[in-house]
Fold this protein.
Amino acid sequence: MEIKRTLIIEQILRFGLALLFLWAGAAKILSPPDFIQTIESYQLISYSFSVFFAYFIPILEILCGLSILFNKIDLGASMTLLLMMLFFIAAMLQAWIRGLDITCGCFGKSSDQNHSQYLWWIIRDTVILSALVLFIKNRFKII
Amino acid sequence: MKFKLLILSLLTFTTLRAELFWENIFQNYKAGINEPKVDFVYKFKNIGKTNITITKVQPSCDCTFAKISKTTYKPNESGEISVSFDMSARTGLQKKEIRVESTDTKNPVITLVFEVDIPQPFKIVPRLIFWTLGEKISSKKSVITIDKSYDVKFELQEASFHHFFIRLNEIKKDEIYELEVKATDTSHADSISVEIPILIDDKPSKPATIYIEIKDPKQSSSSP
Amino acid sequence: MEIKKIIFQSSLLFCIALVLSLVHYKIDPHRPLLTRTPLLKEEIDLKEALLLNPLWVDSRSDNDYFHGHIPHALPLNEDHWEEQLPIIFNAWNGTQNIVVYCSSQSCHTSKVIADQMRSAGFLNVYVLHGGWESWKLNGR
Protein backbone atom coordinates (compact mmCIF):
# COMPACT_ATOMS: atom_id res chain seq x y z
CA MET A 1 0.00 0.00 0.00
CA GLU A 2 2.81 2.30 1.03
CA ILE A 3 4.77 1.39 -2.12
CA LYS A 4 1.71 2.03 -4.27
CA ARG A 5 1.19 5.43 -2.65
CA THR A 6 4.82 6.32 -3.22
CA LEU A 7 4.55 5.28 -6.86
CA ILE A 8 1.43 7.39 -7.37
CA ILE A 9 3.08 10.43 -5.81
CA GLU A 10 6.16 9.86 -7.98
CA GLN A 11 4.09 9.67 -11.16
CA ILE A 12 2.03 12.75 -10.30
CA LEU A 13 5.23 14.68 -9.60
CA ARG A 14 6.83 13.32 -12.78
CA PHE A 15 4.03 14.49 -15.04
CA GLY A 16 3.46 17.73 -13.16
CA LEU A 17 7.13 18.75 -13.23
CA ALA A 18 7.62 17.61 -16.82
CA LEU A 19 4.64 19.62 -18.03
CA LEU A 20 5.69 22.63 -15.99
CA PHE A 21 9.20 22.78 -17.42
CA LEU A 22 8.03 21.98 -20.94
CA TRP A 23 5.60 24.88 -20.71
CA ALA A 24 8.19 27.19 -19.11
CA GLY A 25 10.78 26.40 -21.79
CA ALA A 26 8.26 26.77 -24.62
CA ALA A 27 7.09 30.15 -23.31
CA LYS A 28 10.66 31.50 -23.20
CA ILE A 29 11.77 30.03 -26.51
CA LEU A 30 9.09 31.99 -28.38
CA SER A 31 10.57 35.34 -27.45
CA PRO A 32 14.33 35.41 -26.82
CA PRO A 33 14.54 39.25 -26.77
CA ASP A 34 12.09 39.42 -23.84
CA PHE A 35 14.06 36.76 -21.97
CA ILE A 36 17.35 38.57 -22.71
CA GLN A 37 15.87 41.71 -21.14
CA THR A 38 14.73 39.71 -18.09
CA ILE A 39 18.17 38.15 -17.60
CA GLU A 40 19.88 41.53 -18.03
CA SER A 41 17.67 43.14 -15.43
CA TYR A 42 19.22 40.88 -12.76
CA GLN A 43 22.54 42.60 -13.53
CA LEU A 44 24.62 39.50 -12.86
CA ILE A 45 26.22 38.74 -16.21
CA SER A 46 27.28 40.58 -19.31
CA TYR A 47 25.04 41.20 -22.32
CA SER A 48 26.74 38.47 -24.41
CA PHE A 49 26.13 35.85 -21.73
CA SER A 50 22.54 37.05 -21.38
CA VAL A 51 22.02 36.36 -25.10
CA PHE A 52 23.64 32.93 -24.76
CA PHE A 53 21.53 31.90 -21.75
CA ALA A 54 18.35 33.26 -23.33
CA TYR A 55 18.73 30.65 -26.06
CA PHE A 56 20.28 27.92 -23.89
CA ILE A 57 18.06 27.82 -20.79
CA PRO A 58 14.67 27.28 -22.50
CA ILE A 59 16.07 24.39 -24.57
CA LEU A 60 17.64 22.85 -21.48
CA GLU A 61 14.30 23.14 -19.66
CA ILE A 62 12.48 21.45 -22.53
CA LEU A 63 15.07 18.65 -22.76
CA CYS A 64 14.92 18.05 -19.01
CA GLY A 65 11.12 18.11 -19.11
CA LEU A 66 11.09 15.51 -21.89
CA SER A 67 13.67 13.36 -20.05
CA ILE A 68 11.56 13.31 -16.92
CA LEU A 69 8.36 12.67 -18.87
CA PHE A 70 9.79 9.70 -20.77
CA ASN A 71 11.86 8.34 -17.92
CA LYS A 72 15.13 8.61 -19.84
CA ILE A 73 18.28 10.06 -18.22
CA ASP A 74 15.83 11.56 -15.74
CA LEU A 75 18.29 11.49 -12.83
CA GLY A 76 20.59 13.94 -14.64
CA ALA A 77 17.59 15.96 -15.79
CA SER A 78 16.14 16.26 -12.27
CA MET A 79 19.46 17.26 -10.74
CA THR A 80 20.02 19.81 -13.52
CA LEU A 81 16.61 21.34 -12.87
CA LEU A 82 17.27 21.32 -9.13
CA LEU A 83 20.50 23.26 -9.61
CA MET A 84 18.74 25.63 -12.02
CA MET A 85 15.96 26.37 -9.52
CA LEU A 86 18.49 27.00 -6.75
CA PHE A 87 20.26 29.43 -9.03
CA PHE A 88 17.00 31.21 -10.03
CA ILE A 89 16.01 31.64 -6.38
CA ALA A 90 19.46 32.95 -5.47
CA ALA A 91 19.36 35.38 -8.42
CA MET A 92 15.97 36.66 -7.36
CA LEU A 93 17.05 37.09 -3.76
CA GLN A 94 20.08 39.15 -4.77
CA ALA A 95 17.93 41.30 -7.07
CA TRP A 96 15.49 41.87 -4.21
CA ILE A 97 18.26 42.78 -1.77
CA ARG A 98 19.80 45.18 -4.31
CA GLY A 99 16.41 46.76 -4.95
CA LEU A 100 16.55 46.07 -8.68
CA ASP A 101 13.50 46.57 -10.84
CA ILE A 102 13.27 43.42 -12.94
CA THR A 103 10.04 44.42 -14.60
CA CYS A 104 9.74 46.89 -17.49
CA GLY A 105 9.86 49.90 -15.18
CA CYS A 106 6.51 51.06 -16.65
CA PHE A 107 4.88 51.07 -13.24
CA GLY A 108 7.41 53.15 -11.42
CA LYS A 109 9.31 51.79 -8.49
CA SER A 110 6.77 51.56 -5.71
CA SER A 111 8.58 49.48 -3.11
CA ASP A 112 5.37 47.78 -1.92
CA GLN A 113 4.73 46.47 -5.39
CA ASN A 114 8.27 45.19 -5.89
CA HIS A 115 8.31 43.48 -2.48
CA SER A 116 5.05 41.61 -2.98
CA GLN A 117 6.10 40.55 -6.47
CA TYR A 118 9.49 39.23 -5.31
CA LEU A 119 7.87 37.40 -2.43
CA TRP A 120 5.39 35.73 -4.76
CA TRP A 121 8.13 34.66 -7.21
CA ILE A 122 10.35 33.25 -4.49
CA ILE A 123 7.48 31.33 -2.89
CA ARG A 124 6.48 29.95 -6.28
CA ASP A 125 10.01 28.82 -7.12
CA THR A 126 10.49 27.32 -3.66
CA VAL A 127 7.35 25.24 -4.14
CA ILE A 128 8.72 23.99 -7.48
CA LEU A 129 12.08 23.26 -5.84
CA SER A 130 10.35 21.29 -3.08
CA ALA A 131 8.43 19.27 -5.68
CA LEU A 132 11.73 18.47 -7.41
CA VAL A 133 13.35 17.38 -4.16
CA LEU A 134 10.37 15.18 -3.35
CA PHE A 135 10.46 13.65 -6.81
CA ILE A 136 14.19 12.91 -6.63
CA LYS A 137 13.79 11.44 -3.15
CA ASN A 138 10.91 9.19 -4.21
CA ARG A 139 12.28 8.19 -7.61
CA PHE A 140 15.96 7.72 -6.94
CA LYS A 141 16.01 7.25 -3.16
CA ILE A 142 18.72 9.88 -2.80
CA ILE A 143 18.72 13.24 -0.87
CA MET B 1 -1.57 3.16 -16.19
CA LYS B 2 0.74 6.03 -17.07
CA PHE B 3 -1.96 7.70 -19.15
CA LYS B 4 -4.37 7.52 -16.23
CA LEU B 5 -1.81 9.06 -13.98
CA LEU B 6 -1.18 11.84 -16.50
CA ILE B 7 -4.88 12.63 -16.49
CA LEU B 8 -4.90 12.45 -12.69
CA SER B 9 -2.02 14.93 -12.48
CA LEU B 10 -3.73 17.34 -14.83
CA LEU B 11 -6.97 17.03 -12.90
CA THR B 12 -5.17 17.59 -9.63
CA PHE B 13 -3.65 20.78 -10.94
CA THR B 14 -6.92 21.95 -12.43
CA THR B 15 -9.07 21.31 -9.36
CA LEU B 16 -6.75 23.37 -7.21
CA ARG B 17 -6.67 26.25 -9.62
CA ALA B 18 -8.13 29.65 -9.14
CA GLU B 19 -8.39 31.40 -12.47
CA LEU B 20 -9.81 34.54 -13.95
CA PHE B 21 -11.01 34.60 -17.53
CA TRP B 22 -10.68 38.03 -19.15
CA GLU B 23 -13.04 38.97 -21.99
CA ASN B 24 -10.53 41.38 -23.47
CA ILE B 25 -7.16 42.48 -22.20
CA PHE B 26 -6.50 44.80 -25.13
CA GLN B 27 -8.76 47.63 -26.27
CA ASN B 28 -8.30 50.53 -28.63
CA TYR B 29 -10.09 53.75 -29.47
CA LYS B 30 -9.85 56.59 -31.96
CA ALA B 31 -10.50 59.86 -30.17
CA GLY B 32 -12.24 62.95 -31.51
CA ILE B 33 -10.89 66.51 -31.42
CA ASN B 34 -10.61 67.98 -27.90
CA GLU B 35 -12.11 64.90 -26.34
CA PRO B 36 -11.01 65.17 -22.69
CA LYS B 37 -11.18 61.53 -21.65
CA VAL B 38 -12.15 58.01 -22.67
CA ASP B 39 -13.44 55.14 -20.56
CA PHE B 40 -12.75 51.44 -20.94
CA VAL B 41 -14.28 48.47 -19.16
CA TYR B 42 -12.36 45.22 -18.71
CA LYS B 43 -14.68 42.34 -17.85
CA PHE B 44 -13.62 39.13 -16.21
CA LYS B 45 -15.10 36.01 -14.70
CA ASN B 46 -13.82 33.62 -12.04
CA ILE B 47 -13.74 30.27 -13.87
CA GLY B 48 -11.84 28.53 -11.12
CA LYS B 49 -13.04 26.45 -8.20
CA THR B 50 -12.06 28.79 -5.40
CA ASN B 51 -12.53 32.45 -4.53
CA ILE B 52 -10.18 34.91 -6.18
CA THR B 53 -9.14 38.19 -4.63
CA ILE B 54 -7.83 41.04 -6.72
CA THR B 55 -5.06 42.47 -4.57
CA LYS B 56 -3.81 45.34 -6.68
CA VAL B 57 -4.88 47.39 -9.70
CA GLN B 58 -2.12 49.74 -10.82
CA PRO B 59 -2.14 51.95 -13.92
CA SER B 60 1.16 52.76 -15.60
CA CYS B 61 0.72 56.51 -15.31
CA ASP B 62 -1.10 59.25 -13.41
CA CYS B 63 -3.17 59.88 -16.55
CA THR B 64 -5.08 56.63 -16.08
CA PHE B 65 -7.57 56.05 -13.31
CA ALA B 66 -8.78 52.52 -12.59
CA LYS B 67 -11.52 51.39 -10.21
CA ILE B 68 -13.08 48.13 -9.16
CA SER B 69 -16.25 47.77 -7.12
CA LYS B 70 -15.08 44.88 -4.97
CA THR B 71 -12.02 42.67 -4.58
CA THR B 72 -13.16 39.07 -3.94
CA TYR B 73 -15.05 37.00 -6.50
CA LYS B 74 -16.65 33.62 -5.97
CA PRO B 75 -16.41 30.83 -8.56
CA ASN B 76 -18.52 31.75 -11.62
CA GLU B 77 -18.86 35.34 -10.48
CA SER B 78 -18.14 38.13 -12.96
CA GLY B 79 -16.68 41.53 -12.38
CA GLU B 80 -15.16 44.45 -14.19
CA ILE B 81 -12.45 47.04 -13.90
CA SER B 82 -13.40 50.52 -15.10
CA VAL B 83 -10.59 52.59 -16.52
CA SER B 84 -10.61 56.27 -17.37
CA PHE B 85 -7.83 57.83 -19.45
CA ASP B 86 -7.22 61.58 -19.38
CA MET B 87 -6.31 62.66 -22.91
CA SER B 88 -6.23 66.40 -22.37
CA ALA B 89 -2.51 67.02 -22.71
CA ARG B 90 -1.70 64.39 -25.31
CA THR B 91 -1.61 63.72 -29.04
CA GLY B 92 -0.75 60.78 -31.25
CA LEU B 93 -0.92 57.08 -30.48
CA GLN B 94 -0.97 56.47 -26.73
CA LYS B 95 -0.46 53.02 -25.27
CA LYS B 96 -1.08 52.55 -21.56
CA GLU B 97 -1.16 49.56 -19.23
CA ILE B 98 -2.84 48.56 -16.02
CA ARG B 99 -1.24 45.87 -13.89
CA VAL B 100 -3.69 43.63 -12.05
CA GLU B 101 -2.45 41.36 -9.27
CA SER B 102 -4.67 38.65 -7.85
CA THR B 103 -4.72 35.25 -6.19
CA ASP B 104 -5.18 33.65 -9.63
CA THR B 105 -2.83 30.64 -9.46
CA LYS B 106 -2.23 30.53 -13.23
CA ASN B 107 -1.72 34.22 -13.92
CA PRO B 108 -1.21 36.12 -10.68
CA VAL B 109 -0.24 39.22 -12.64
CA ILE B 110 -2.17 40.33 -15.73
CA THR B 111 -1.43 43.44 -17.78
CA LEU B 112 -4.46 45.14 -19.30
CA VAL B 113 -3.60 47.34 -22.28
CA PHE B 114 -5.33 50.07 -24.22
CA GLU B 115 -4.31 52.17 -27.18
CA VAL B 116 -5.87 55.51 -27.97
CA ASP B 117 -5.24 57.38 -31.20
CA ILE B 118 -5.53 61.05 -30.29
CA PRO B 119 -5.79 63.27 -33.34
CA GLN B 120 -3.22 65.91 -33.98
CA PRO B 121 -4.85 68.28 -36.46
CA PHE B 122 -1.71 70.39 -36.70
CA LYS B 123 1.86 70.46 -35.52
CA ILE B 124 4.10 73.43 -34.75
CA VAL B 125 7.85 72.84 -34.94
CA PRO B 126 9.48 74.34 -32.95
CA ARG B 127 7.20 75.73 -30.28
CA LEU B 128 10.08 77.30 -28.40
CA ILE B 129 11.82 80.20 -30.09
CA PHE B 130 14.71 82.03 -28.50
CA TRP B 131 17.59 84.38 -28.98
CA THR B 132 20.53 84.82 -26.66
CA LEU B 133 21.32 88.18 -25.10
CA GLY B 134 22.92 90.50 -27.61
CA GLU B 135 22.27 88.17 -30.54
CA LYS B 136 21.80 89.92 -33.85
CA ILE B 137 18.20 91.00 -34.41
CA SER B 138 16.66 88.52 -36.79
CA SER B 139 13.56 86.52 -37.69
CA LYS B 140 13.09 82.94 -36.61
CA LYS B 141 10.48 80.63 -38.01
CA SER B 142 8.26 77.78 -36.92
CA VAL B 143 6.60 75.52 -39.44
CA ILE B 144 2.97 74.59 -38.95
CA THR B 145 1.77 71.48 -40.77
CA ILE B 146 -1.93 70.73 -40.98
CA ASP B 147 -3.46 67.26 -41.12
CA LYS B 148 -5.52 67.37 -44.33
CA SER B 149 -8.42 65.51 -42.74
CA TYR B 150 -9.15 68.57 -40.63
CA ASP B 151 -10.12 72.11 -41.55
CA VAL B 152 -7.80 74.23 -39.40
CA LYS B 153 -7.90 78.01 -39.33
CA PHE B 154 -5.61 80.23 -37.28
CA GLU B 155 -7.09 83.47 -36.06
CA LEU B 156 -3.86 85.41 -36.15
CA GLN B 157 -2.23 87.27 -39.00
CA GLU B 158 0.13 89.68 -37.28
CA ALA B 159 0.73 90.74 -33.69
CA SER B 160 3.27 92.57 -31.55
CA PHE B 161 4.17 91.59 -27.98
CA HIS B 162 6.92 93.26 -25.95
CA HIS B 163 9.95 93.27 -28.26
CA PHE B 164 8.59 90.64 -30.60
CA PHE B 165 6.70 90.83 -33.83
CA ILE B 166 4.78 87.78 -35.04
CA ARG B 167 3.36 87.08 -38.46
CA LEU B 168 1.62 84.02 -39.91
CA ASN B 169 2.47 83.32 -43.56
CA GLU B 170 0.65 80.79 -45.70
CA ILE B 171 3.13 78.59 -47.57
CA LYS B 172 0.74 76.03 -49.01
CA LYS B 173 -2.99 76.66 -48.67
CA ASP B 174 -4.58 74.67 -45.84
CA GLU B 175 -1.44 72.55 -45.48
CA ILE B 176 1.67 74.43 -44.45
CA TYR B 177 2.08 77.73 -42.65
CA GLU B 178 5.07 79.58 -41.36
CA LEU B 179 5.02 81.47 -38.10
CA GLU B 180 7.62 84.19 -38.36
CA VAL B 181 8.84 85.72 -35.10
CA LYS B 182 11.14 88.71 -35.08
CA ALA B 183 12.92 90.03 -32.00
CA THR B 184 13.23 93.80 -32.21
CA ASP B 185 15.52 94.14 -29.20
CA THR B 186 17.80 91.44 -27.75
CA SER B 187 19.58 93.57 -25.19
CA HIS B 188 17.36 92.48 -22.31
CA ALA B 189 16.27 89.06 -21.17
CA ASP B 190 12.59 88.57 -21.87
CA SER B 191 10.04 85.78 -21.89
CA ILE B 192 6.51 85.60 -23.31
CA SER B 193 3.99 82.99 -24.33
CA VAL B 194 1.69 83.62 -27.26
CA GLU B 195 -1.65 81.86 -27.61
CA ILE B 196 -2.88 81.53 -31.17
CA PRO B 197 -6.66 81.10 -31.40
CA ILE B 198 -7.68 78.21 -33.64
CA LEU B 199 -10.82 76.95 -35.32
CA ILE B 200 -10.95 73.25 -36.17
CA ASP B 201 -13.78 72.24 -38.47
CA ASP B 202 -15.31 75.67 -37.73
CA LYS B 203 -15.37 75.06 -33.98
CA PRO B 204 -13.16 76.94 -31.50
CA SER B 205 -10.42 74.67 -30.20
CA LYS B 206 -7.71 74.89 -27.54
CA PRO B 207 -5.30 77.63 -28.67
CA ALA B 208 -1.80 76.73 -29.78
CA THR B 209 0.85 78.16 -27.50
CA ILE B 210 4.36 79.14 -28.50
CA TYR B 211 7.04 80.37 -26.11
CA ILE B 212 9.46 83.12 -27.00
CA GLU B 213 12.48 84.19 -24.98
CA ILE B 214 15.61 86.26 -24.99
CA LYS B 215 17.92 84.08 -22.93
CA ASP B 216 20.93 84.91 -20.85
CA PRO B 217 23.48 82.12 -21.54
CA LYS B 218 25.20 82.86 -18.24
CA GLN B 219 22.05 82.06 -16.30
CA SER B 220 22.44 78.87 -14.28
CA SER B 221 19.40 76.63 -14.28
CA SER B 222 17.71 75.83 -11.00
CA SER B 223 14.64 73.95 -10.02
CA PRO B 224 11.55 76.03 -9.26
CA MET C 1 28.16 5.52 -8.84
CA GLU C 2 25.15 7.77 -8.63
CA ILE C 3 27.37 10.87 -8.82
CA LYS C 4 29.05 9.57 -11.96
CA LYS C 5 25.64 8.86 -13.45
CA ILE C 6 24.40 12.35 -12.54
CA ILE C 7 27.49 13.99 -14.07
CA PHE C 8 27.28 11.91 -17.22
CA GLN C 9 23.56 12.48 -17.76
CA SER C 10 23.72 16.20 -16.94
CA SER C 11 26.69 16.67 -19.27
CA LEU C 12 24.83 14.90 -22.04
CA LEU C 13 21.81 17.15 -21.57
CA PHE C 14 24.01 20.24 -21.50
CA CYS C 15 25.76 19.23 -24.73
CA ILE C 16 22.52 18.51 -26.57
CA ALA C 17 21.02 21.78 -25.28
CA LEU C 18 24.13 23.66 -26.38
CA VAL C 19 23.98 22.27 -29.91
CA LEU C 20 20.24 22.89 -30.23
CA SER C 21 20.50 26.42 -28.86
CA LEU C 22 23.27 27.25 -31.33
CA VAL C 23 21.11 25.92 -34.16
CA HIS C 24 18.13 27.94 -32.87
CA TYR C 25 20.26 31.08 -32.72
CA LYS C 26 21.55 30.53 -36.24
CA ILE C 27 18.14 29.99 -37.79
CA ASP C 28 16.34 32.72 -35.81
CA PRO C 29 15.73 35.53 -38.33
CA HIS C 30 15.40 38.08 -35.52
CA ARG C 31 18.40 37.01 -33.50
CA PRO C 32 20.18 39.82 -31.63
CA LEU C 33 23.88 40.47 -31.94
CA LEU C 34 26.09 38.86 -29.32
CA THR C 35 27.58 42.20 -28.40
CA ARG C 36 25.56 45.19 -27.39
CA THR C 37 25.14 47.82 -30.03
CA PRO C 38 27.08 50.95 -29.14
CA LEU C 39 25.18 53.66 -27.32
CA LEU C 40 22.87 55.45 -29.68
CA LYS C 41 24.05 58.89 -30.65
CA GLU C 42 21.59 60.43 -28.22
CA GLU C 43 22.52 58.13 -25.31
CA ILE C 44 25.07 59.07 -22.75
CA ASP C 45 26.33 57.20 -19.70
CA LEU C 46 26.36 58.69 -16.22
CA LYS C 47 30.08 59.43 -16.13
CA GLU C 48 29.95 61.45 -19.36
CA ALA C 49 26.70 63.13 -18.35
CA LEU C 50 28.20 64.43 -15.10
CA LEU C 51 31.06 66.02 -17.02
CA LEU C 52 28.54 68.03 -19.03
CA ASN C 53 27.01 69.63 -15.93
CA PRO C 54 23.66 69.33 -17.65
CA LEU C 55 20.13 70.41 -16.99
CA TRP C 56 18.60 67.15 -15.72
CA VAL C 57 15.08 66.31 -16.86
CA ASP C 58 13.11 63.61 -15.06
CA SER C 59 10.59 61.95 -17.39
CA ARG C 60 9.07 59.65 -14.73
CA SER C 61 5.67 60.16 -13.14
CA ASP C 62 5.22 63.00 -10.65
CA ASN C 63 4.90 60.41 -7.88
CA ASP C 64 8.28 58.84 -8.68
CA TYR C 65 9.86 62.30 -8.99
CA PHE C 66 8.47 63.23 -5.58
CA HIS C 67 9.99 60.11 -3.99
CA GLY C 68 13.47 60.89 -5.25
CA HIS C 69 15.22 62.48 -8.19
CA ILE C 70 18.63 63.66 -9.33
CA PRO C 71 19.38 66.91 -7.48
CA HIS C 72 18.07 69.98 -9.36
CA ALA C 73 16.32 67.79 -11.95
CA LEU C 74 13.09 69.20 -13.34
CA PRO C 75 10.10 66.98 -14.09
CA LEU C 76 8.74 66.70 -17.64
CA ASN C 77 6.23 63.98 -18.43
CA GLU C 78 3.37 63.52 -20.87
CA ASP C 79 0.82 63.81 -18.05
CA HIS C 80 1.73 67.43 -17.36
CA TRP C 81 3.56 68.38 -20.56
CA GLU C 82 1.87 71.75 -21.13
CA GLU C 83 2.45 72.94 -17.54
CA GLN C 84 6.00 71.66 -17.24
CA LEU C 85 7.37 72.55 -20.70
CA PRO C 86 7.47 76.35 -20.20
CA ILE C 87 9.12 75.90 -16.78
CA ILE C 88 11.93 73.90 -18.34
CA PHE C 89 12.23 76.30 -21.25
CA ASN C 90 12.57 79.14 -18.79
CA ALA C 91 15.15 77.31 -16.68
CA TRP C 92 17.28 76.37 -19.70
CA ASN C 93 19.79 79.03 -20.70
CA GLY C 94 19.81 78.14 -24.38
CA THR C 95 23.29 76.59 -24.45
CA GLN C 96 23.32 74.08 -21.58
CA ASN C 97 23.26 70.38 -22.39
CA ILE C 98 20.10 68.55 -21.34
CA VAL C 99 20.02 64.96 -20.08
CA VAL C 100 16.69 63.17 -19.79
CA TYR C 101 16.24 60.09 -17.64
CA CYS C 102 13.51 57.67 -16.62
CA SER C 103 13.51 54.73 -14.22
CA SER C 104 15.86 52.22 -15.82
CA GLN C 105 17.41 51.05 -19.08
CA SER C 106 14.27 49.09 -19.95
CA CYS C 107 12.13 52.24 -19.75
CA HIS C 108 11.60 54.04 -23.09
CA THR C 109 9.89 57.15 -21.77
CA SER C 110 13.11 59.17 -21.66
CA LYS C 111 13.67 58.61 -25.40
CA VAL C 112 10.09 59.67 -26.17
CA ILE C 113 10.40 62.81 -24.04
CA ALA C 114 13.84 63.62 -25.50
CA ASP C 115 12.40 63.37 -29.05
CA GLN C 116 9.53 65.64 -28.10
CA MET C 117 11.91 68.13 -26.51
CA ARG C 118 14.02 68.33 -29.68
CA SER C 119 10.89 68.76 -31.75
CA ALA C 120 9.80 71.56 -29.41
CA GLY C 121 13.06 73.42 -30.00
CA PHE C 122 15.51 72.35 -27.30
CA LEU C 123 19.09 71.74 -28.38
CA ASN C 124 21.74 69.26 -27.16
CA VAL C 125 19.28 66.78 -25.64
CA TYR C 126 20.67 63.44 -24.46
CA VAL C 127 19.20 60.38 -22.78
CA LEU C 128 20.83 58.86 -19.70
CA HIS C 129 21.81 55.23 -20.29
CA GLY C 130 20.48 53.20 -17.36
CA GLY C 131 18.23 55.98 -16.03
CA TRP C 132 17.55 56.66 -12.37
CA GLU C 133 18.76 53.15 -11.54
CA SER C 134 22.26 53.94 -12.81
CA TRP C 135 22.32 57.08 -10.63
CA LYS C 136 21.45 55.04 -7.54
CA LEU C 137 23.77 52.14 -8.41
CA ASN C 138 26.66 54.61 -8.55
CA GLY C 139 26.09 55.37 -4.91
CA ARG C 140 24.55 58.79 -5.44
Notes: The domain at 18-118 of chain B is CATH 2.60.40.10 (Immunoglobulin-like). The first strand of chain B starts at residue 20 and ends at 22. Helices of chain B lie at 2-15.
